[in-house]
């Protein structure tokens, strides 16, 4: 391994380590064929880190019982000697395999910054030529990116920035390294690539396709979602620790070659900040415990919330089905109302015709009265059906009102829990509340329609009563005609009898003559 070169990229998460690692390919550094795939919205152009190395780092952190972002220091004593030896053998075999067929291999994972106490003894044991690239980015930009991706508070992100940057500097002092500013790389990649090549003692061909592809195609504005200036950091206020300002100023000076890497005052500054972080160890451990508790809550609350949402969605489905049924009934009521209006118009027209036929033959009048009685019977039956439907609707409306009140109480009860539920859970509850408001508005509209229907029904009842009175008059007229017919028949019989009598007398007189 003595003729092999290992380039280790160190830096805080969201500091542009992926873009800087990708630049190593312009120097002929191999990054391996087991790269972690890109993630849309996180690292769209790739992480450029070896998945096998990441797997070992994650196993180590799991054995330490820590996440990727604790503020307190790692307790290496949590891993027993046998397990630690197993990890060492895995790491050595991994590096031997990665360096076997290439002169230089690039290793990048933000976790490496805090796992250097594990990896550096392995580097020394293998005798590999190690060079470090320290990537630094404005802490405000890092905090903004972590807030957008992970919801971290700015002050916590600033402490986490120090937890990564300070060890990366102290653990690589006296070793070959180069400090690279992510902002300078984005602004002037050619200059920064020359600095990296010089710091790593590697050749750089600025006419190569790798160089041109990186500087012209790979680097683009979408790689830098957050961009804050030094002036913004200077006026950021008490939310930014003064130690962070000093550390960032020192690294920024080194990245511009304004400050020498061997400056003893810079070394003393980092030692002082490291002591500052050590003095906060108990407070940082307490913050970590609070974060762990929040994570537990975030994993338990969604289970309860999903069950509650399922319950609410089931109730909402039932309400929606009831709403659809009511709307279908409303359509039927409107059609029936139109039909009844038509019947009323027909009856009105029939009354007019009946008035004209009042003095027609008794048989025609009797037939017309029968038709009117049939129409009246149909209207009465329709009236009874509508009343039964109105009663059913009122019962259903009462049930819906009660269910809506229960669901509102459930939603209020869930809100009073005051747990930091996931955004998608809150969003789903909001959608359901909007849906309930829509149902309530629909219920109000149906009640207004019911009132209008009751007024119309009353008007039609009055009209039916008027028709009933008219029918009674027709029946009375029919009775009168019948009495007149009987009188006419009696008169006709009397007239016939008189005629026969007259004919008899006339015959007797003729015989006498």
What does this molecule look like?
The chain is rod-shaped and about 165 Å long. The mean pLDDT is 82. Helix content is 72%, strand content 5%. 23% of the residues are buried. α2 runs antiparallel to α3, α3 crosses α4 and α5 crosses α6. The termini are far apart. The chain has a 4-stranded parallel sheet with strand order 2-1-3-4, sandwiched between helices. The chain is mainly α and 513 residues long.
Spans with pLDDT under 50 lasting ≥5 residues? Answer: none
- Overall 3D geometry? rod-shaped
Strand order in the sheet with the most strands? 2-1-3-4
Strand content: under 5%
Major sheet characteristics: 4 strands, parallel
How far is it from the N-terminal to the C-terminal residue, by CA?
Answer: 174 Å
Number of helices: 15
Radius of gyration using CA atoms only: 48 Å
The count of strands amounts to 4
| Percent range of helical residues | over 70%
Overall average pLDDT: 82
What letter string, H or E per element, gives the SSE order? EHHHEHEHHEHHHHHHHHH
Q: Would you tell me the structural class of the helices and strands?
A: mainly alpha
């Amino acid at each position: 391994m003595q003729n092999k070169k290992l380039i280790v990229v160190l830096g805080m998460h969201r500091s542009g380590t992926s873009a800087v690692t990708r630049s190593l390919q312009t120097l002929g550094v191999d990054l391996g064929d087991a790269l972690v795939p890109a993630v849309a919205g996180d690292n769209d152009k790739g992480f450029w880190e070896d998945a096998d190395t990441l797997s070992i780092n994650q196993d180590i952190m799991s054995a330490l019982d820590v996440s990727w972002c604790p503020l307190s220091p790692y307790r290496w004593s949590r891993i027993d000697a046998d397990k630690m030896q197993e990890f060492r053998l895995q790491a050595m075999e991994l590096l031997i395999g990665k360096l076997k067929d290439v002169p230089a291999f690039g290793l990048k994972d933000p976790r490496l910054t805090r796992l250097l106490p594990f990896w550096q003894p392995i580097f020394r044991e293998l005798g590999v030529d190690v060079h470090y690239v320290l990537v630094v980015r404005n802490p405000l930009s890092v905090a903004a990116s972590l807030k957008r991706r992970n919801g971290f508070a700015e002050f916590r992100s600033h402490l986490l920035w120090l937890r990564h940057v300070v060890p990366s500097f102290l653990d690589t002092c006296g070793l070959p390294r180069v400090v690279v500013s992510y902002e300078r790389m984005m602004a002037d990649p050619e200059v920064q690539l020359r600095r990296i090549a010089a710091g790593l003692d590697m050749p750089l061909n600025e006419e190569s396709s790798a160089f041109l592809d990186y500087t012209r195609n790979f680097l683009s504005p979408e790689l830098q979602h957050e961009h804050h200036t030094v002036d913004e950091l200077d006026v950021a206020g008490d939310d930014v620790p003064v130690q962070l300002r000093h550390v960032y100023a020192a690294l920024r000076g080194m990245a511009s070659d304004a400050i020498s890497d061997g400056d003893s005052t810079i070394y003393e500054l980092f030692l002082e900040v490291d002591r500052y972080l050590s003095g906060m160890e108990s407070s940082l451990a307490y913050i970590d415990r609070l974060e762990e508790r929040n994570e537990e809550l975030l994993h338990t609350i969604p289970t309860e919330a999903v069950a509650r949402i399922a319950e609410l969605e089931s109730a909402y489905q039932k309400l929606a089905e009831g709403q659809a049924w009511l709307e279908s009934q409303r359509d039927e009521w409107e059609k029936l109302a139109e039909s009844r209006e038509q019947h009323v118009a027909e009856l009105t027209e029939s009354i007019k015709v009946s008035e004209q036929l009042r003095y027609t033959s008794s048989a025609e009048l009797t037939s017309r009265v029968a038709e009117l009685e049939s129409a009246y019977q149909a209207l009465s039956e329709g009236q009874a059906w509508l009343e039964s439907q109105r009663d059913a609707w009122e019962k259903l409306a009462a049930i819906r009102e009660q269910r809506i009140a229960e669901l509102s109480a459930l939603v209020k009860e869930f809100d009073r829990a005051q747990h930091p539920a996931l955004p998608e859970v809150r969003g789903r509850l909001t959608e359901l509340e909007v849906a309930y408001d829509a149902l309530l508005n629909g219920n109000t509209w149906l009640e207004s329609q019911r009132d209008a229907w009751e007024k119309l029904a009353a008007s039609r009842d009055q009209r039916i009563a008027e028709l009933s009175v008219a029918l009674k008059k027709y029946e009375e007229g029919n009775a009168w005609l019948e009495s007149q017919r009987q009188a006419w028949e009696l008169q006709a019989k009397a007239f016939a009898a008189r005629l026969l009598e007259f004919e008899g007398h006339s015959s007797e007189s003729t015989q006498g003559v």
